[in-house]
Amino acid sequence: MNDNDLFAAMYGAVGEESRWTGVLNAIKLRLGVASAVFQRLVVDRDELVPMFSMRDSWSTQEAARHDAWANSPLNPRFRSHNVPHGPYGIESDQRSLALTAQDREELRNGLANCGLGPGFWLDCRTGAGEHTTIILHRHVDDTRDITQADEEFLHQLMPHFRQVSQLLKDFAEQRARLSVAEAFMDSTSFALLACDLSFGVHWMNAAAERLIDQLPQVALVSDTLRFRTCESAALVEAALIGESGDVCRVPGDEPADVLHLRVLRRDAADKRRWGRNLVLLALCSPGTLPYIDAAEVADLFGLTMAEATLTAHLVSGMTVKDYAAHRGIAEGTARMQLKSALGKAGVRRQADLVRQVCQSLARL
Predict the structure, then answer these.
(1) What CATH code is carried by the domain that includes residue 231?
(2) Among candidates 3, 5, 59, which has minimal Cα distance to 34?
(3) How far is residue 252's CA from residue 209's CA, in Å, rounded to a whole number?
(4) Distances in Å between the alpha carbon of 173 and those of 169, 170, 190?
(5) What is the pLDDT of residues 92-134, one digit of tens each?
(6) Has this prediction a pTM greater than 0.70?
(7) Are residues 154 and 280 in the same domain?
(8) Helical H runs in the chain?
(9) Residues 6+ apart with CB under 8 A from 352
(10) Which of 11, 109, 120, 163 is the most exposed place for a label (fewest CB within 10 A)?
(11) Structural domain span for residue 334
């Protein structure tokens, strides 16, 4: 692999961590060293802590051995005073001013026990108290410091390494924000889904999955919404593209089976841009039963699980008599549980209990 191909391969590894092994193998081969490892380090009190380590093939095989000393606080390099002061730099064990003579002696002995020789590296600061590094170690019997040829290559590598480090940070931040957003949308009781103009579903939350499972006029087949009639599909398509406003009504077998659909966000298709043909939809149907978590009801109202389970079934439309038969208990027992739940919730009637639970969970 020539240098240009190597630099390009680094960019290709940003979104696919498994490709880093091949990239680091190529860097190791290019410099003739024993190991090449890409790490993200953060300051934690008096230590530098590796948050992740991508390794070449040999370092991967020796990971447990290396982590026992080389990637631990026992290594003098992992002390907080070794955080780079500039935005980026190239350094080595033998010339680093942050390392004392005692540090260097500890390094020589500790690295030798790990099957490694002296190290040299390039650093890039990516934020307050955090940086990335590619650390390279010579073979255990090679005591040379970084050479001029090594340094020339690292200077060529540096601008690409800095850019890749920033891309990795941005990618991780975007992924974290997306994870939080998806967790929020999956926890809400509102049915939400994102689809394209061909009804292909790119994301949906648990509430939308439950709703679609209950309705007769729509189904999810191979990640695509399928409507039972052409008329229904045409109604939804008109709403997706904005021809009939932002809402539509898709009838079912019974009046209560109707599907109400509202467009929350519509991104117009644009062939010059990626990801611009998605529509975010909210779905609801008055005839479907609400999903109530009995454990949440118990926590919120101080009920026992038996009382909360009864309350959840009442919210879903079941009568006390039907609940007792469903659970295989006496109707009198169910009514005693209801009386206790009413008292703890501070209401007198079953309808008030159902309304209070629904209002509280809706606000949450």
Answers:
(1) 3.30.450.20
(2) 59
(3) 17
(4) 6, 5, 26
(5) 999 988 888 999 999 999 999 999 999 999 999 888 888 899 9
(6) no
(7) no
(8) 3-12, 20-31, 57-61, 63-67, 101-113, 148-187, 206-214, 230-241, 294-301, 305-315, 320-327, 331-345, 350-363
(9) 342, 345
(10) 109
(11) 294-363
